[in-house]
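Predict the 3D structure for this chain.
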Amino acid sequence: MPELPEVETVRRTLEPVVVGQTIERCEIYYERVLPHARSSEFCGSVANRTITGVGRRGKYLIFALDRELDLVVHLRMTGQLIYQPTRELPLPKHVSARFWFLDNGELRFVDQRKFGTIYLVARDDYSEIHGLYTLGPEPLSSEFIWKVLAAGVQSMRAIKAVLLDQTKIAGLGNIYADEVLHRAGIHPLKPGCLLTESEIKILHKSIVSVLNEAIACHGTTIRDYRTGSGDTGNFQNQLQVYRQTGKPCGKCGVLIERIKAGGRSTHFCPRCQRWDPECTD
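Done. Predicted structure below.
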């Protein structure tokens, strides 16, 4: 599933080419992409609306339209939102929705697994989008200081599970939670409430640095993810633990291991991220 760096990269690649564009018309090819609207009603509401901005909240893309409307897109597992400068290009498989612009360009929502969703709501009214409405703090915002993180991790749950909880921190998923914990030297099964102040400060720094580095690399492409221009990301070439099982740790040379944490496949270095649950120190 695209995580914060991937969604932010899509936002940054789409913003220069769609802001100021007027949607001439749209077509919905997969009705379930609209959880709360019929396609005829939705397409009628977005027709002749101009995109005035592109934002992001967690893993959600938010297109601000004129007349105080927000078009919200959740890519989920395999969603791709790609701008095409011309309408003559062949239509690929698995297109869920298509938006034509007055200037001849178009925006296509391609989704092989068909889990992605699109919503049209009043400006800043996300109450009907539960996952967006209940999001925790943005980890790249100025408000996300280490004390905010400290309050969010106070749980007996494994820290890996806490990082994946979108109500605690917005935007982290399996890839970056593994990478962040490895850089911070924290075992993924250690309960969040047992982290020391020093560990929380290091974890906070790791979250911010890993996410910024991944954005600079245009995200991580394992299989389906593409930027808003259809390109792949590059951060997969810098992954230290995620899907590196059996390979030597780049820090110490010990082989990376894989376990389950919070029901998710989790990768870590048993030396760099050592933790003895029997130790009370």
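The chain has seven helices and ten strands.
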